[in-house]
Amino acid sequence: MSAFLLTEPEVGSDPARLATSMTPDDEGFVLFGIKLWATNGTIAGLFVVMARVPATEGNRGGITAFVVEADSPGITVEARNSFLGRRGIENALIRFDRVRVSAENVLMGVGRGLKIALATLNTGRLLLPAICGGKRGVQVVLERGPRLVG
Ligand SMILES: Cc1cc2nc3c(=O)[nH]c(=O)nc-3n(C[C@H](O)[C@H](O)[C@H](O)COP(=O)(O)OP(=O)(O)OC[C@H]3O[C@@H](n4cnc5c(N)ncnc54)[C@H](O)[C@@H]3O)c2cc1C
Predict the structure, then answer these.
(1) Nearest protein Cα to ligand 1, atom 14
(2) What is the distance in A from the centroid of ligand 1 to the CA of 45?
(3) 5 Cβ inside 6 Å of ligand 1
(4) How sure is the predictor about 70, in pLDDT bands with cuts at 50, 70 and 90?
(5) What's the pTM?
(6) Per DSSP, which regions of the chain are E strands?
C-alpha cells in the first residue's frame, strides 16, 4: 500500500510553492516538513513524498519525488483526518522530522517531481473518473441496448 504526499497545510492547488525540504548530505538526503490530506497515509508502507531539494553547486535542485519507507525514524502520523462523508477513507496528517532518505530513493531525478505531481493529479482527479464514467456508459448500453438520445 502506498500514499502520495503532495499537499501541505499552506499548499494545495499550487504545488510549486511546497515547503517540505529534502536537504542533501554525504549519506543521501534529510527530509523535514509536514503533509496534509494524505490518502492511505495511516496504513501505507511506502510514501511518495514531494519535497524541495535546495540548489547546490552543479545541481539546480527543485521539487523532487522520493520513495520513503513509512516506518523510517522521524515520521509521525499526527492525525487520521475526518470528513463530513467518506468515513472509510484512511487520510492522514504526517510530520517528517529529520528523516534519512537514501539517494537511490529519488524518482526520475532531482528536480523532476513537479511533473510527476501534476501528472498524478491529472490522472487521479481527471482521467480515472472520466474512464469510470465512460465505462459505466458503455455498460449501460451493453445491459439495456443502445437508445436514441435527444
Ligand atoms: C478526500 C481527499 C483526499 C485527498 N487525498 C490527497 C492525497 O492522497 N495526497 C495529497 O497530496 N493531497 C490529497 N488531497 C488534497 C487535495 O489534493 C487538495 O485539497 C487540493 O489540491 C486543493 O488544495 P486545498 O484544499 O489546499 O485548496 P486551496 O488550494 O486552498 O483552494 C481552495 C479553493 O480555491 C481555488 N483556487 C486556488 N487557487 C486559485 C487560483 N489561483 N485561482 C482561482 N481559484 C483558485 C481552488 O480551486 C479551490 O476551489 C485530498 C483531498 C481530499 C478532500
Answers:
(1) 37
(2) 24
(3) yes
(4) very high
(5) 0.86
(6) 2-5, 21-25, 28-39, 46-53, 62-69, 75-80, 91-101, 106-107
